[in-house]
Amino acid sequence: MLKKLTLGIGLALSVTNIALADLKEDIRRFQHYFFTKFPQVPKMEYVNGVYAIDPVGRENWQAMEEFPPYDPFIDQGKQMWETPFANGKKYTDCFPEGPAQRKNYPHWDKKRAMVITMELAINECRTANGEKPFNYEKGPLAILTAYMANASRGQIIDVKVPKNDAKALEAYQQGKQLWFSRRGQLNFSCANCHAQNVGRLLRSDILSPALGHAASWPVYRSTWGELGTLHRRFHGCNEQVRAKPFELQSAEYRNLEYFLTAMNNGLKFNGPSSRK
Amino acid sequence: MHKTQLLLFIAMIGTPILASADNAALINAGKQTAFDRTKGNCLACHQIEGGESPGNIGPPLMAMKIRYPERQKLYERIWDATVFNPETSMPPFGRHQILTESELEQVVEFIWSK
Is B7 a member of any domain? Predict the structure, then answer.
């Protein structure tokens, strides 16, 4: 089955002048793989990660969600959002639409020829206003994005790879390639665990489906005991397979987020979330 | 009796005789290495008798002498399983030097005893 998935996407990879129709086909194949594997799971459930496919874990998680561990951070993030910078400006000066920004990220910036993530945009807003950038892993940035994600709950994931922009396509393809490439001493790709072996047990942990992986950030992970960003998780996964991790918000991880979020198109953002 | 069957027969009846004190020590060392999360971590994916909370990504490791009459074949599989199946999830323990040569020998001996 993975063969079909990689082959299909691999074929698309080899064509340099990809059309938007091929992105749609990538998304269809990617999602179809999981729909076939778990026919009983409704599409919109995938944003709940492993709990979409693990009834036992789901019960514990639902109990945890009654008093979510990320809850206090939403209020804290709201305060951060409303507190003016030293120069008197506010986040709304950078984000006139307000905190409900999730649907706008990640996106392709044609002028700068790069993928812009929400975290990057926040830090650029800060430095443009004479503030220090936040750490990309956790802490204030995760807290602020928890508030923004919460305000964005229910927005539909709709990442666009612009037509006739070879560089956008290249970024998308690099993300795709990273997702399918085996890396590290242990020789795992993202696809090995989260597509090929999805639902199987790694020790006593069920491997979560990649469909939904981009929807729920930031995450309060019990393993961390705190909130963390998507790129923190990328970094951690790379370390687990003993691969050299990339820098958080590097082109590699931004492109990976671009591809992964595009594969989640049609689902709804539901961050912040709690996970084991 | 075919030659392979004969070899298998010899391998099977020969085992208890070969299981000297040295061999038992090797198997025991192999068990430690195989179960160690930072070394073989075989239980991450395989069920093995005597191991707790095994994963199920790979097949249970049992009846190994029947599945691998030739010890060398098992060794090669653990050295680099991608040679036999390019889509395998099994890390190439020898090729990527996840285990040292002596650790690999221990693990092969332990797994082959299952």
Answer: no
Beta carbons of B57 and A202 less than 8 Å apart: yes
Q: Output the domain CATH number for residue B90.
A: 1.10.760.10
Number of domains in chain B: 1
pLDDT at A16: 43
Range of the domain at B43: 21-112
Residue A106 burial by Cβ neighbours in a 10 Å radius (0-12, 13-18, 19+) = buried
Summarised one tens digit per residue, pLDDT across range B45-82 is 999 999 999 999 999 999 999 999 999 999 999 999 99
Q: What is the ipTM of this complex?
A: 0.86
Q: Please, what is the Cα angle at B52 between B27 and B38, to 5 degrees? A: 65
Using CA atoms, how far residue B96 sits from A45, A184, A241, B91, in Å, is 38, 9, 12, 8
Using omega within 30 degrees of 0 as the cis cutoff, is the peptide bond preceding B16 cis? no
Residue type at position A188: F
Secondary structure of B34-63 in the HEC alphabet?
Answer: HHCCCCCCHHHCCCECCCCCCCCCCCCECC
Binary contact (B89, A188; C-beta < 8 A): yes
Q: How many CB atoms lie within 10 A of CB A31?
A: 20
Give the residue from A198, A206, A216 showing the smallest Cα distance to A260: A216
Rounded to 5°, angle at Cα B25 from B24 and B26: 90
Nearest-CB residue to B57 (from A2, A200, A204): A200
Q: Is residue B1 part of a domain?
A: no
Q: Which residues of A touch B48 (CB under 8 A)?
A: none
- Return the percent helix, strand and coil in chain B, to nearest 5: 55, 0, 45
Helix (H, G, I), strand (E, B) or coil at A9: helix
Residue A266, phi-psi category: left (phi > 0), alpha (psi -120 to 50), beta (remainder): left
Residue B3 falls within a domain, yes or no?
A: no
Global pTM value: 0.90
At residue A213, what is the residue type?
A: H
In a domain, B68, yes or no: yes
